[in-house]
């Protein structure tokens, strides 16, 4: 299937869900006239079309780090490029159909990479971020370096989902020289301290060779107590000079417990970490692990984290209470 055709079909299907196209962060509705969105439909549509769109550019973002920044109305107010990092078995297109255009509409320079497309037969279906996390972190390091050269910026902000919200960028920050090149990491549903996968971790570890062959090495690296997790978290959760925002959801059934994503700030810099539970801010938001990046409230909380002046410009949006995805 031609790539441009797949992208067109994806756009058409995603338009069936209210969040399938750009979400202007500044378009605030009165509290009693909030639109109702299905984050489930938007996430499902994007995932369904991944084989056709896996290497497509999310609206509002560059995928090539050598491409000049897309212009934004308020770019002078947001001098740091934002690099979007998708999660395990996802890709830049299906993960960032909502957040990338929201950031671009707010005047950010947005880049979205694909990484880790090794080690699993699922790669042929558009799934990426399945390879060794250490290798993926080196991919991120090279990508950020090229973004900095292209834009002339001194630092970037990182925004990620799942593996891309925690383990992989934190590996980059701690072991691949990223600490001097990143201002802030915003993580949506990260598994910073591993996951029990709702009890599936033990059976998956019991057949580790089969799991690795089918899914790639990254999934087992993220289970609670893995050697990778132990090495990553030894000596503390953070690195000096970087600010961290974690956004978790109580409906997460992939990162379990969902509080595993929360980070602990060092005693010397208690303000380095902000941990947020989505439902503490927007109680009616039922977004789970898979569809949190399609939640308008998660989008606004991300914009809050990147720019504190944004907080006063929005109210929580109602989310259609479909049975939540994992």
Describe the fold and architecture.
By secondary structure, this protein is an alpha/beta fold. Helix content is 32%, strand content 10%. It has 13 helices and six strands. A six-stranded parallel sheet has the order 2-1-3-4-5-6, sandwiched between helices. Helix 7 links the parallel strand 3 (156-161) and strand 4. Helix 6 packs across helix 7. Mean pLDDT is 84; it is low at 1-35.
Query: Fraction of residues in helices?
Result: 25-40%
Instruction: Let me know the number of strands.
Output: 6
Quote the distance from N terminus to C terminus. Answer: 30 Å
Q: By helix and strand content, what is the structural category?
A: alpha/beta
Radius of gyration: 18 Å
Question: Looking across the biggest beta sheet, what order are the strands in?
Answer: 2-1-3-4-5-6
Mean pLDDT: 84
> Are there runs of 5+ residues with pLDDT below 50, and where?
1-35
Largest sheet: 6 strands, parallel
What is the approximate shape? Answer: globular
* SS element count, helices: 13
Write the element-wise H/E pattern from the N-terminal end onward: HHHEHHEHEHEHHHHEEHH
Q: Name the beta content range.
A: 5-15%
Question: What's the short version?
Answer:
The chain has 326 residues and is α/β, with parallel strands linked by helices. The chain has helices at residues 3-14, 39-48, 50-53, 92-95, 99-105, 133-151, 167-175, 201-206, 208-215, 218-221, 227-233, 278-281, 296-306; strands spanning 82-85, 110-113, 156-161, 182-188, 243-248, 273-277.
